[in-house]
Amino acid sequence: MRISMMMLAAWCVIAACSHSPSRDSLEGADWLRKGTVAKKDSKPDEMDDRLDFAELQKYRDYEEVKRWIGYFTHTGRKSFAGYLERGQVYRPLIESILEQSKLPKSLYYLAMIESGFTIRAASNRQAVGLWQFIPGSAERFGLEVNAHVDERLDPIRATWAATRYLKDLHNVFQSWFLAFSAYDTGERRILSAIMRKGTRNYWQLARMNAVVDETQNYVPKFLAAAIIGENLAEYGFDVANRPVYPNLQAVLFPAATGLQYIAEESGLSVEQLKAINPHVLGATLPHVAEGYRLWLPTSTTVDIDRVVERQRNAQVAVLRKPPAAPVVALAAPKSPPRHSPKHQRRGKSAHKLQGAHVVSNKKHGHKKAHHPQRAYAEY
Predict the structure, then answer these.
(1) How far apart are CA 110 and CA 119, in angstroms?
(2) How far is the C-alpha of 155 from the C-alpha of 276, rounded, in Å?
(3) Looking at domain 5-18+32-229, does it have CATH number 1.10.530.10?
């Protein structure tokens, strides 16, 4: 597990905070794990750190959660139904990666409140994709963002990156709700809130306005989405079935391979390749020495050598093609000079003006005027 220096520093801050006295009861030696709980608050403490679906049901009666359940089932019902429908496509994929990462499957609903399962969802903070990575976080957790690819748009790579990020956050804060808050607003803001308020209990931090409104709503929104999503009939949702994300394999292609030649050899269209590789921005793979791994259906076989040969032959054909004859644009003949009517008002007729032009040309060694007489006659 990679933990950055900032993460390590954060852990030190939390450890220091955990040994600071509080006006609330420290509840024995395991305060570090459970955090401080206000004596008047008898609700279950989220620091028990369980996120299985059965445990999440106990948050139904939290006022903050009830408000979001009300929103998703009334005003925002149509939008939430869209989240559920689009989510069917990605749920098996996301839950499989969460299981392989030994993370709770309920984190699927974090992607739901981040993007509504819209691949190209983008925020005003330049966050993109299912998991809404900003460029800096994307790079930290292994996603490439450049002119050729934006791997935040790749559901598979982005989900793996999100699991690494969430694991790191949970290792630091020892609380899923604090980890979610940091995922939403940044580690430093959550650390600052913990230090200022002297508690690691998410609900207390939120109720003391120690975090911004968006972050105060982030965890209740996640809980509401999970509670409704696991009890669709109870809340009156009937979601139409949609095909799930296809089974894919990563195939290594040489640098700068054109999608056109991969499509021709694999039997897929370029549009189909783009659909399962939405992160590939152009017509070619990245120009990297080690090549690039592209997703292809597991049922597809492709001869990489033949792909390379197709591209080479196409490039050679372009080089051998004779250059097109240059097109020479002929200049249009110049119109004869037009003389203002003011010349005639001064007593000069068109005939005299023409004569003046002839004389002028004779002075320069020419025998006749360049312009036909008819052009001047129009005046």
Answers:
(1) 14
(2) 9
(3) yes
In angstroms, what CA-CA distances link 67 with 55, 62, 70, 169, 326?
A: 19, 9, 5, 27, 71
Angle at the Cα of 163 from the Cα atoms of 99 and 117, rounded to 5 degrees: 90
Instruction: Tell me the backbone φ, ψ of residue 25, rounded to 5 degrees.
Output: -65, 135
Of 112, 51, 120, which Cα lies nearest the Cα of 81?
112
Helix, strand, coil in percent for the chain, rounding step 5: 55, 5, 40
Which residue, among 154, 148, 156, 157, has the nearest Cα to 288 in the 3D structure? 148
pLDDT tens digits for 74-123?
999 999 999 999 999 999 999 999 999 999 999 999 999 999 999 999 99
Residue 210 phi, psi dihedral angles, 5° rounding: -80, -15
From residue 205, alpha-carbon distances to 43, 113, 253 in Å are: 15, 21, 49
Contact status, residue 97 vs residue 217, Cβ threshold 8 Å: no
DSSP 108-155: HHHHHHHHTT-TT-B-TTS-BTTTTB-HHHHHHTT--BSSSBBGGG-H
Tell me how far apart the alpha carbons of residues 83 and 109 are, in angstroms, rounded to a whole number: 10
Q: Which of 76, 150, 142 is nearest to 113 (CA)?
A: 76
Could you report the per-residue pLDDT of 163-185, keeping only the tens digit for each? 999 999 999 999 999 999 999 99
Helix (H) or strand (E) holding 84: helix 77-100
What tokens does 99 get? 């299981």
pTM above 0.85, yes or no: no
Q: At 163, give phi and psi (nearest 5°).
A: -65, -40
Residue-range domain boundaries for the chain: 5-18+32-229, 248-320, 344-377
